[in-house]
Amino acid sequence: MSGARSQRWQGHRSTLLIAGGLLAALAVVLLLGTPGARTAARLDPDNPGTEGAQALARVLADQGVDVSVTRDADSFDEALVDAGTTVLVTSSEQLGDSTTRRLLDHAAPGQLVVSEPGIGAVEAMGLDALPVRVTPPGEVEAGCAEPGLADLEISIDSGLAFEGDGCFPTAEGRLLARPTEQVALLGAGDLLTNDQILRADNAAAAVRLLGERPRLVWYVPTYADLVGDDGVSVRSLLPSWLIPAVWLLGLSTIALMLWRGRRLGPLATEPLPVVVKAVETTQSRGRLYHRVGDRAHAATALRQAARSTAETALRLPPGDLALLVPALAARTGRRPDDLARLLDDAAPPPATDPELIHLASELAELDREVRRT
Fold first, then answer.
1. Rounded to 10 degrees, what is the CA torsion of 258, 264, 269, 270?
2. Would you tell me how many other CB atoms lie within 10 Å of the CB of residue 264?
3. What are 76-121's pLDDT values in tens digits?
């Protein structure tokens, strides 16, 4: 029984020592850190805040790792990078095309670890699919056979998941991707922070990943190193499949419209929901004309109705007053000039309501004469 306990103690001894060293480093950072030397950048090795990584940098140094920090591309190019060097890149969103190429060229002899890489860095590292933001519900097991990480579990608030080979798998992908043997993309940048490094096996995973080699070059890029060719357009920030998908969606919509769309045809008549008697319509119009005092419009409507009735009775073409007046004169015996005064719209309109009533009476009498004869 005591032998089993001794083996378990030996297995967790390194983890406990790392955790103890981190606790001591955090205490030193909080007690001795000078405000003038602090920086608020996330994962910065000189940042003692919750988002910084000063505790990890000091623990790595205490473990015998030679940690050197470079904050621009020129300083990074001057740093020694060989087979015994690990290059850690934080603030990778400030990498451009030119600085990414310089990084890959200079870090080629050693091991490159990029924390939370941006879109440009992901494509430059050889990954076709962009990472997905994930929020693991609990601890994430290594799920790989990589030495130093196989028996560990990490816990983070959120991170980036990548497709392909790597460690710490989630439903959306892996938090640590290995596009090549010399390159590692760390989507779980939270495990490096002062606030979360003591969770689960975060400390052991960080130290084993970054302290495997005797030298660590901590590269913090800056926008000041970018050149004119590093400018990006909106299209460069979009995934490569988006534009073909938009074209496909547009063509599919047009095809659906042509297939299912209705073609224009003759007008279709539909029964009115309410049947209104003609006499009611006439009375309503008369009241409207009377209300606005439009006697000319009312006289025109009466003359048009009288002409239509007479043309139907005499079987004459509609709208020809020159044929209608002589035919009516021959049928009724009235004078043509009197008929023209009654039926012509160009005749003077009634000036008063009694005149309008008189005109209506005369037209009604003419209609009776036409029907009687």
1. 20
2. 5
3. 999 999 999 999 999 888 888 888 888 989 999 999 999 998 777 7
